[in-house]
Amino acid sequence: MTDKRPDYEDDVKDITGAFGGAVDDIKRELERMPLDRRGANAATKKVGAIIKSLTGKAGNWVDRVIPKAAKEGISRALGALGIGKKKAEPPVSRANSGMISAASEDTYADLLAVTKNIDRRTKAAIRRAVADTMRANIEAGINGRRTINADTAAKIRAELGASADNAIIDAAGRRWKVETYVDMVTRTKLMQATNDATINEALGRGVLYGVISRHGATDACAKWEGRTVKLVRDAPGSYPFIGDLPRREIFHPNCRHTISPIRNPLPEELESPFRAGSNGGDSNGEDYPDIPITTHNRVHGLADSTDKIIRNGEEQLRPLDYERGIIYDSKGNKLWEQSGEQRRLNIKEVADRGLLKDNIITHNHPDGFSFSRADLGVLVNYGVKEMRATSGPYLHRVSLGNSKVTLNEILSSYSELESYLDPLLRTEVKSGRIGIREGSTIFYHEIVKRLAVQYNLNYTRERL
Ligand SMILES: [Zn+2]
Ligand SMILES: [Zn+2]
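That is the input. Now the predicted structure with zinc ion docked in place:
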């Protein structure tokens, strides 16, 4: 599972196409210019006009595309935080409109430097070609010929043609082809504007952390994928500050990683790589091996007598190869019982009848895994007292306790953890250290465990 990246391909193609086209036009002018003063004057004028039109295009492009990249960043922040509806035009905060002007000026200055560079180098090359031709003519005259020889003329024209092509030398002294350079500069600036807008939007809403996107990078960025960072240096916790990350490794030129704001980041100790038996469990990820049932009941605030009734019901559910659910009130009275399809139950009907609030719902998971995203969504959304799932050799139980988690938070964090743990699970399975079934059992258990720590939920799993 990977994150969706912002797509600026068409916009980048637009601007590199404009620069590439201008370079071609200039080359064509140079190819056909007569190598004399009049020819030089005419060609210089034409090059000037091409550059002027290119500069205009660059200005329009910046005005159109930088705000668009910023809005993409704002929408991403709102999406990640589960705020507002999907709108075409997100509101732009004052911090972001300031950022948009600065980024636009900056990008325009970079592009202007390229056009000026092409202009200066081409015009210098034209002057040099004319001077070289004149000198060659004088030498030809001295040698009694009327015109310079073809080799000399070809050499002068070749130099002239190359002048438009290799126009850019960057601060490190590297030579760039114009289109390659413009591609790199604009791509980098667009990603920067996107990420800056995301960060500004997050900070404007009091969100101090972000998670770096995942695309399965193979360069130096790989080690930062999925990592939590602070968006301001003095935010609590020992996560690295985004401004301190080494630019050679992440958010480098052409980097396409984004940042996804998160209100309650994962505790650092749980960010560790996912392994079979990690985080204190045994090889099955067992966490509460020898704790008596009464203790489990105390954790979830359930009377032992009610629990006993529910366990009897669960004995009937456990062997089924389809899902079946039962709802009990806190006294152990059965309020509802129904079978679902193989993997899910229809919860809407019971929710509409008000049977979920403050009651206990139990069901079986024929696939043997811990709670699904939908299960936790039901728990939070309907104020269920306790959600239980019996699957394979386990009984999973989760209750809200004093948690203030919202539906949006639990759903987006669940997805977040799924995509964080998924590549780790794949690596483990591929290595042959665990089987896919064992891996998946640990996978869902790890997700729920981490959510429980993150949002202060009560989660227990016991081996029956
Ligand atoms: Zn990257
Ligand atoms: Zn379920």
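The chain has eleven helices and eleven strands.
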